[in-house]
Amino acid sequence: MTRPHDLLAAAAADGVDPGPFALVRREGADHLELFTGTVRTADRLADIPLPDGPPGPRTLALVPYRQIGERGFACVDDGMPLECLVISAHQRIGLADALDVLPDRPVRSTGAGFDVADDEYAATVGRVIADEIGRGEGANFVIHRTMRATVQGPPLVAALAALRRLLLRERGAYWTFVVHTGTRILVGASPERHVSVDDGLVMMNPISGTFRHTGAAADRDALLRFLHDPKEVEELYMVLDEELKMMATVAEHGGQVVGPHLKEMAHLAHTEYLLAGRGSRDVREVLRETMFAPTVTGSPMENACRVIARHERTGRRYYAGVLALLGRDDDGRQTLDAPILIRTAELSPAGELRVPVGATLVRHSTAEDEVAETHAKGAGVLAALGLGPDAPEPAARPAVSAGLTPRHDPERSLANDPEVRAALAARNAPLARFWLDQRTPGASALPGLTGLRALIVDGEDTFTGMLAHQLGALGLRVDRRDWREPAPVDGYDLVVVGPGPGDPGDPAAPKMAVMRALLAGLLAAGRPTLAVCLGHQLLSGLLGLPLHRREAPYQGVQRDVTVFGAARRVGFYSTFTARADADRVASAYGPVELSRDPADGAVHALRGPGFAGVQFHPESVLSRDGLAVLADLLGHLLANPALTGHGPADRG
């Protein structure tokens, strides 16, 4: 079948298998793209085919969640294959033409129900908040469950009928699609770009915060309350930080933050940022280094994968993975466009239907709200599959020929409301300008730092990537090393013992023992040392300061604190803290000056002869004054009078 209408008509009429294909509408397009070809499997992302040739798409890869194992992260391995549609033909179909040929019939299913009941899911929410976030294992975690049913009739016809309803009734989707490989069918309307690469520009699109509504449009006053809700604000900040960590790896100077914006969908609305930066990596490496989005896993990423495996106990199949369209542009450069596989149903050839959904759990979460969030997130695709009510029709619908999703009317969009826009813009006021403003290399470099070398030891938190960019902006040459890679630190002017999850007082934890021994050696040798978060806690213990677990986790908390006499706004991601009763203490390594919380004695920062530590994250987007703090500490540690007091602090 060479004509796209023939292929769709045959598949839509009676479920005749036309061979592997994908039908995709990208955000804002007035057409759908039809990709046909052959399917092959790959073991690794590096094996996804991307041959040379004329410009255009080459391969559409279905990347399952189990590929996270390529990064050495934990997962329940369910054996789902990395399937690649190697594209032999690429055609366009006008949106109106596609709607004419797609089946206009209801989808009928039986035996619908969640694999994890509401009360069981609520209990899991409680355990994750208490046992994981409450014990310092991370800031936020996404736990999923799956609606299962059996589709009546040919599954491919059901998927195409669901696609038609999504095209007509859903809005705000980044991709709306059907993918048929012969072994499975995926149909969905994903709101979230995970990562894209075009003309050397790498972009990511973290979306978090969910406003549920049941009307044709969201209630404006309720939406404004949502936009000012601290829990929703902090949830978006946390995933922003986590994706900035990824951008720190795949973009040469890290990511620049754009937004936030409001993404409106039929049953709910989200808040989102856009991150952009220049990069030159192979797009398959970009995919690997960004597996997978914190919006569907959590942070810090490596430990989030352990938490998911502990509490879900089943494989995720394709949920939280990506569709990845790889190709080449007119100049032969690689391109990538990869939406996250959420709001997506998977159908087997036998009609088995799975619709996975998840909720982001943070310290403010309640079990009731997170259960409701999973229902809301599945509502659009479940309605398209006949398993839930459609969202109410808006008062008026623009013509399909205008190139708009039929439910989307820009004139009625609350995203354009002045108060909504002001509420979103206000979210950036307390954030670090380092990540919001376009940066010129060398503009923040300080006298005396050029040519000096720093080593960052990573304690399983890629905040170290962001820290490397900030130290580099100040003029240092920076290397990073995993805590599992013991090696001499000779040749470095500064060693940074970085952040990571876990209990610093756990005597059985190998990571704690290794990092504590490293710090002890650095102190004994008098080598300039900076400790951040977990590193700061371990340093505090070596200095004789007692460690305490906070009653309420400090995960994603922004505070105004005093750091050695200077007022600083900084971001915390911690559950443990050192405490002291005085601003100066004696230690085996010399006198130590402390910056403490006046209320409970929590040690926010410390410094002594050749060492310093901070409990907060100066590299976080929450640390408005983080670059200033680093500049001042480098002045102390490297004993260069030219540095002291020259922090670009006050440039933000």
TrEMBL record:
EC number in record: 4.1.3.27
Chorismate-utilising enzyme C-terminal domain: residues covered: 119-377
One GO BP: L-tryptophan biosynthetic process
Span of domain Glutamine amidotransferase: 455-633
Key words of the record: Lyase
Domain of life: Bacteria
Renumbered residue ranges of the record's region Disordered: 390-414
Gene3D superfamilies reported for this sequence: 3.40.50.880, Anthranilate synthase
Pfam families for this protein: Chorismate_bind, GATase
First-tier enzyme category under EC: lyase
MF terms in GO: anthranilate synthase activity
Catalyzed reactions: chorismate + L-glutamine = anthranilate + pyruvate + L-glutamate + H(+)
Protein's UniProt name: anthranilate synthase
Provenance organism: Micromonospora inositola
